[in-house]
Design brief:
It comes from Nocardioides euryhalodurans. By secondary structure, the chain is α+β, with helices and mostly antiparallel strands. The protein is built from 5 helices and 8 strands. The protein has a single domain, classed as Chemotaxis protein chec.
């Protein structure tokens, strides 16, 4: 389970130190993709393989499926953390997520998300009340 919030710095070469807590789960490989709301998603290779399998089973006659899979796979980059636990973020993905030196890495269950720090603050500020309000919708009482 990937969870928590961390604040590594992006270096001048576009690398960041993955939080030590996540390194074992990502040591066999990972895929970095565009995420929703202009963040990046880091998938352990096994989780991305499952997602890719679902995408390949979806009907290509559906325009939404074509649009989603094009953007998902065109922006995907497979990698493996280096010996120091650093991950290189390709320039195209850094630009997509407007990443600067200050980033936030959050664990979201089966994946990580990498956010520009200012954008993450704006996102959480705007959705804090909705988080409280949605709990009953997302997890209805049984």
């Amino acid at each position: 389970m990937l969870m928590g919030t961390y604040t590594p710095k992006l270096d001048d070469k576009g690398r960041l130190f993955l939080p030590a807590k996540f390194r074992d789960q990502l040591s066999e490989g990972l895929v970095v993709t565009r995420g929703q709301e202009r963040c990046l998603t880091v998938w352990p290779m096994s989780a991305f393989s499952q997602l890719a399998g679902q995408a390949q089973e979806a009907p290509v006659t559906d325009k939404a499926v074509r649009d989603y899979t094009r953007l998902l796979f065109a922006g995907a980059s497979d990698d493996q953390p280096d010996k120091q636990g650093r991950l290189s973020i390709p320039p195209m993905l850094r630009e997509y997520a407007s990443l600067s030196k200050d980033v936030i890495v959050i664990g979201v269950g089966n994946r990580l998300e990498i956010w520009d720090a200012a954008r993450w603050q704006e996102y959480t500020d705007a959705r804090e009340q909705a988080f409280s309000d949605l709990s009953d919708e997302v997890f209805p009482a049984t």
